[in-house]
């Protein structure tokens, strides 16, 4: 997959720092219609019409691409990569597979996967980019992504652009897996993962260039909290320019810097060997 960042001549202020990520294979590919479903926008509102998530609304209309995160219900059936496509709902590209039994499915495209390549999921499959196999069969140190947290579930870990995890060691029924955040977690050796790094690793270097591009993504403008009235936010009010006169907090008064937000006594805590910080 040939991927590069394209920059434009600064003919207008909005173009001055505008950049886009170009993947050659995705340029002319149309999505596969049977694997599309409507994506309804909420505008950040709940079923009562009240805003529960701020700064959401508008944006381009999209269809959701149904992605096969599981891979384990097509074991030992080879599939050919028909196309690499852009997905507006995620940072990574997606690959359209055609299985030997005639079924089409989307998967997250790993870096280095090209049109015409063959991939397969199973226990005794080659150690090759795009193949899915249990952690028990993957050697230590190999880059992996789309990792299941429990056997026979969908892959939940390491799915964003450029992400990759590594198996550090295996002990008993578990593997020590280092995630991109730096967290080390115990994961069952029966869980499946896909070989390789997630595509679009340059995504982090894209410069949106102008506010309108953020609006196309469905993000509305933010108001600085210290510019609000006291009735609208705890940090509002004050004579002249004020920093709020208190530590940063949410509209409900909960501190935003340094306060731990993870649920206490979460059942999966016992599988975390080392925290990300």
Structural commentary:
With 277 residues, the protein is an all-beta fold. It folds into two domains: 3-204, OB fold (Dihydrolipoamide Acetyltransferase, E2P); 231-269, no CATH class. It has one helix spanning 211-216, and strands at 3-7, 19-23, 36-38, 63-65, 79-85, 94-99, 104-108, 118-119, 132-134, 143-145, 147-148, 155-157, 165-171, 174-178, 184-188, 192-195, 272-274. A seven-stranded antiparallel beta sheet has the order 9-16-10-13-14-15-17, with no helix packed on it. The two termini are 34 Å apart. The model has no long low-confidence stretch (mean pLDDT 93).
How is the topology of this model organized?
Layout: E1 3-7, E2 19-23, E3 36-38, E4 63-65, E5 79-85, E6 94-99, E7 104-108, E8 118-119, E9 132-134, E10 143-145, E11 147-148, E12 155-157, E13 165-171, E14 174-178, E15 184-188, E16 192-195, H1 211-216, E17 272-274
Antiparallel strand pairs: 1-2, 3-4, 5-6, 5-8, 6-7, 9-16, 10-13, 10-16, 11-12, 13-14, 14-15, 15-17
């Amino acid at each position: 997959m040939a991927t590069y960042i394209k920059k434009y001549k600064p003919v207008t202020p909005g173009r001055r720092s505008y950049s886009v990520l170009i993947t050659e294979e995705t340029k002319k590919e149309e999505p596969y219609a049977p694997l599309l479903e409507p994506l309804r926008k909420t505008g950040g509102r709940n079923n009562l019409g009240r805003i529960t998530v701020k700064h959401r609304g508008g944006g381009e209309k999209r269809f959701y691409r149904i992605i096969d995160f599981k891979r384990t219900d097509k074991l030992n059936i080879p599939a050919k990569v028909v196309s690499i496509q852009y997905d507006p709902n995620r940072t990574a590209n997606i690959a359209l597979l055609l299985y030997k039994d005639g079924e089409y499915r989307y998967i997250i495209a790993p870096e280095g996967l090209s049109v015409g390549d063959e991939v397969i999921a199973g226990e005794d499959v080659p150690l090759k980019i795009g193949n899915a196999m249990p952690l028990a069969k993957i050697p230590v140190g190999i880059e992996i992504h789309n990792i299941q947290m429990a056997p026979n579930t969908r892959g939940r870990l390491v799915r964003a652009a450029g992400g990759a995890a590594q198996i550090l060691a295996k002990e008993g029924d578990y593997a020590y897996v280092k995630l991109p955040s730096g967290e080390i977690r115990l994961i069952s050796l029966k869980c499946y993962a896909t070989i390789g790094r997630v595509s679009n690793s340059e995504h982090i270097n894209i410069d949106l260039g102008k506010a309108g591009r953020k609006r196309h993504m469905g993000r509305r403008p933010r108001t600085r909290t210290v510019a609000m009235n006291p009735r609208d936010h705890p940090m509002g009010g004050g004579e002249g320019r004020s920093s709020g006169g208190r530590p940063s907090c949410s509209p409900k008064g909960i501190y935003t810097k340094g306060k731990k937000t993870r649920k206490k006594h979460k059942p999966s805590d016992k599988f975390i060997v080392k925290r990300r910080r």
